[in-house]
């Protein structure tokens, strides 16, 4: 739901006062009425905090503890969100009362919400000006550079965000980032992972389908038994008993290898001649 413009907009020096100076004005006003004032809002000169937690002033007097929220808002109505926020702060702080003081107008919903809690006091722009005029605290000079120094021709400023508004914007931003990360993973990361897996499987299947050559088994060298001759007590070695081997392909041997083969073959023939008995004996 959008913000609703105020039915009436003030154009006096109080309306053009900077918001931090407005907090200090209210602190001086309540101090002059006998309260011990602690300025805890972001408009305090010694404050280093960015957020005030919904409390701008803390008032102490006669055992009473009052929390105050100051809103310098003239263009838009101050909604019930501010009232509900201060009700929660009042209970958290164990305060006896709570005050919302503004320079403009409350919405009807804000007035209705405050009516249900007698401890909540709403001070709108008209009531604030009467209160400050009685004590002589009402400013009489405009503040230079403020867009509300005059009403005619000015572009309305946006209302200040409450803590609830900031929290909602933060959650919305966080949700948007989460959705963005999920979409990024869905459209980019996950397809890339599946593509890599598919490529690996294809390569593995291709590698498995290639036929591998059969292993070459070297022929075993079987030992030839010893051969005996008719000569008593003499056994021939394997090399002595082997008959001459047919010559290998000469074209595959070098000249030196061919000569060596002829020498060994002639030696084998001589051994056979000496050890073999004649046929006519």
State the total count of DSSP E strands. 7
Q: What class would the helix/strand composition place it in?
A: alpha/beta
* Percentage of β-strand residues: 5-15%
Poorly predicted runs of 5 or more residues? 46-52, 147-160, 235-241
Read across the widest sheet, the strand sequence of neighbours is: 1-2-3-4-5
What would you say the CATH architecture of the largest domain is?
3-Layer(aba) Sandwich
- The number of domains: 2
SSE succession: HHEEEHEHEHHEEHH
Distance between the termini: 136 Å
CATH class of the largest domain: Alpha Beta
Q: How is the main sheet built?
A: 5 strands, mixed
Find the CATH topology of the largest domain: Trna Endonuclease, Chain: A, domain 1
Shape summary: rod-shaped
Count of helical segments? Answer: 8
Helix content: 40-55%
Radius of gyration: 54 Å
Describe this structure in words.
The chain has helices at 13-16, 19-32, 80-93, 108-115, 125-135, 163-209, 238-241, 255-275, and strands at residues 36-39, 57-61, 64-71, 97-102, 120-123, 227-228, 235-236. Strands 1-2-3-4-5 form a 5-stranded mixed β-sheet, sandwiched between helices. A two-stranded antiparallel sheet has the order 6-7. The chain is built from 8 helices and 7 strands. It has 2 domains: 13-160, Trna Endonuclease, Chain: A, domain 1 (3-Layer(aba) Sandwich); 227-275, no CATH class. Helix 3 packs parallel to helix 4 (108-115). It starts with 12 loop residues before the first helix and ends in a 6-residue tail after the last helix. The radius of gyration is 54 Å and the shape is rod-shaped. The chain has 281 residues and is an alpha/beta fold.
């Amino acid at each position: 739901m959008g913000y609703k413009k105020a039915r009436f907009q003030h154009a006096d020096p109080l309306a053009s006062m900077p918001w931090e100076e407005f907090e200090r004005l209210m602190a001086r006003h309540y101090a002059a009425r006998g309260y011990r004032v602690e300025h805890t809002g972001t408009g305090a000169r010694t404050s280093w905090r960015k957020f005030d937690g919904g409390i701008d002033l803390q008032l102490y007097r006669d055992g009473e503890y009052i929390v105050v929220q100051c809103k310098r808002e003239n263009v838009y109505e101050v909604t019930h969100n501010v009232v509900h926020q201060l009700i929660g702060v009042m209970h958290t702080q164990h305060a006896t009362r709570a005050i919302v003081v503004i320079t403009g107008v409350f919405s009807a919903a804000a007035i209705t919400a405050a009516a249900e809690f007698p401890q909540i006091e709403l001070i709108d722009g008209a009531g604030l000006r009467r209160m400050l005029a009685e004590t002589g605290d009402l400013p009489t000079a405009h503040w230079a550079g403020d867009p509300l120094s005059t009403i005619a021709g000015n572009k309305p400023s946006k209302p200040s965000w409450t803590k609830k508004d900031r929290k909602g914007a933060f959650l919305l931003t966080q949700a948007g980032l989460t959705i963005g990360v999920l979409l990024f993973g869905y459209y980019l990361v996950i397809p890339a992972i599946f593509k890599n897996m598919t490529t690996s499987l294809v390569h593995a299947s291709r590698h498995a389908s290639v036929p591998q050559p059969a292993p070459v088994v070297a022929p075993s060298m079987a030992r030839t038994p010893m051969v005996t001759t008719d000569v008593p007590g003499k056994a021939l070695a394997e090399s002595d008993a082997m008959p001459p081997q047919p010559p290998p392909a000469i074209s595959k041997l070098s000249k030196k290898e061919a000569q060596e083969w002829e020498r060994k073959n002639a030696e084998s023939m001589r051994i056979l001649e000496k050890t073999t008995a004649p046929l006519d004996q």
